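Backbone-to-sequence.
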């Protein structure tokens, strides 16, 4: 399809800002150039205008696209490539993927708290939940607080009901590469992105991550930028839908 001068200008501006062009952006340009222009300004705003480095932005996008709540393969490959272009090592990218793996704990943390509440409400006391803390419990709590600075309710429940599992959770949540691991501030912001993205929203964990970020001295501008960056993944509705629309239109 021959492009109008306006479409040519929009395409050139998009490629200059993003460095790539896809079949779905081509379809957006074809069917709704006005929306492509709006998306280019909206979708690119947070990464372009906040204080986070280009590398940090790419690592956040790697985490979000790799998340089991999203699994956007083409975007993941793109942002891995850009992250390494900006200096990320394979070990650091692997660390981000490990953090995305730990996102699966979101359902566990919410569920065990509800389990304890509902058992109490049903009049089914669990002796382990009322007993004095064991030495293993105390040691796990000390390690968790030293690592994260807090002791959430789900940790207390798991320390009583299944301390061996909580020990593995602590190991997974704190995993990093000893050679060139990510800084703690970067890990907190990546974790915040995973917990606050609409595809895997975990409100209690969002609050925890923000509290930890503030305690570590991370500026509110950095936190706000992460929260804004998670929103534009919604455009993947177009990444999937526009090619399907093009196939229908073109027969």
């Amino acid at each position: 399809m021959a492009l109008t001068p306006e479409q040519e200008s929009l395409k050139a501006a998009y490629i200059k800002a993003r460095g790539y062009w896809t079949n779905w952006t081509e379809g957006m340009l074809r069917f709704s150039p006005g929306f492509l222009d709006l998306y280019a300004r909206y979708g690119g705003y947070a990464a372009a205008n906040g204080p986070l480095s280009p590398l940090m932005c790419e690592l956040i996008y790697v985490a979000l696209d790799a998340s089991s709540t999203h699994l956007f393969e083409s975007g993941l490959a793109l942002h891995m490539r850009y992250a390494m272009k900006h200096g990320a090592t394979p070990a650091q990218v692997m660390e981000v993927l490990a953090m995305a793996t730990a996102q699966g704990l979101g359902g566990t943390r919410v569920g065990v708290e509800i389990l304890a509440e509902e058992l109490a409400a049903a009049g089914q006391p669990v002796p382990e939940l009322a007993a004095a803390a064991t030495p293993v419990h105390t040691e796990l709590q000390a390690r968790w607080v030293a690592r994260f600075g807090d002791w959430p309710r789900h940790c207390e429940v798991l320390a009583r009901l299944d301390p061996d599992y909580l020990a593995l959770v602590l190991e997974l949540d704190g995993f990093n590469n000893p050679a060139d691991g990510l800084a703690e501030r970067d890990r907190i912001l990546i974790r915040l992105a995973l917990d606050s993205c609409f595809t895997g929203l975990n409100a209690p964990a969002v609050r925890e991550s923000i509290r930890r970020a503030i305690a570590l001295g991370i500026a509110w501008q950095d936190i706000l930028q992460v929260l804004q960056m998670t929103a534009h993944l919604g455009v993947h509705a177009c990444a999937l839908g526009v090619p399907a629309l093009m196939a229908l239109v073109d027969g």
